[in-house]
Amino acid sequence: MITISENAQQHFIKLLSQQAEGTHIRVFVVNPGTAKAECGVSYCPPDAVEADDIQLPFEGFSAMVDADSKGFLEDAEIDFTTDQMGSQLTLKAPNAKLRKVADDAPLFERVHYFLQAEVNPQLAGHGGECTLVEITDDGYAVLQFGGGCNGCAQIDVTVKDGIEKQLIELMAGEIKGVKDATEHERGDHSYY
Fold first, then answer.
1. Which pTM does this prediction carry?
2. Both 11 and 82 in a single domain?
3. Helices (H), the chain
4. Checking CA distances to 17, which of 11, 54, 177, 181 falls within 20 to 30 Å?
5. What does the pLDDT look like over 119-164, one tens digit per residue?
6. 130: annotated binding-site residue?
7. Domain co-membership, 131 together with 82
8. 152 is in an annotated binding site
9. pLDDT in tens, 14-62
């Protein structure tokens, strides 16, 4: 569920040594499954442990995860690095904004997840986004683009050389291609 690097584990052990005995860390997601999702780490004293918490044992401490955050912390990584600029604790939770779907989930859910988790974060750098409209009976994912992608001169490259290639590779035999249903209008909002 959560990977905590050796450096981060040592950091937590040091911090917890200054807390009351039996104190753990808590890893959580506020507003899980939404665009406003944020992850955090806090102290978890013994009296704050809930009956439905999941306890993840590590050498020298445990990480507590509340039941509501569990699915959104799948594949999360915590690391602690030190360089000339100082020290930093990082928590990467790729599924915090969208719960990871099972490999055997319906095709629509798997494609939607891929777009939200892999494609939209890249498009957001250009002020763009895409949504899955439908999957046709003959295996085409129909997408709608918005923001900076609408009217962008590079949309064909994004669709054919980027999204389509990845989807065909990831979902071989299920997805034959991608169709763009957007009525592109060039304007100030367009990235290129």
1. 0.62
2. yes
3. 6-16, 107-114, 120-124, 155-156, 165-170
4. 54
5. 988 888 888 889 999 999 999 999 999 888 888 888 888 898 999 9
6. no
7. no
8. yes
9. 999 999 999 999 999 998 887 788 999 999 999 999 999 999 999 999 9
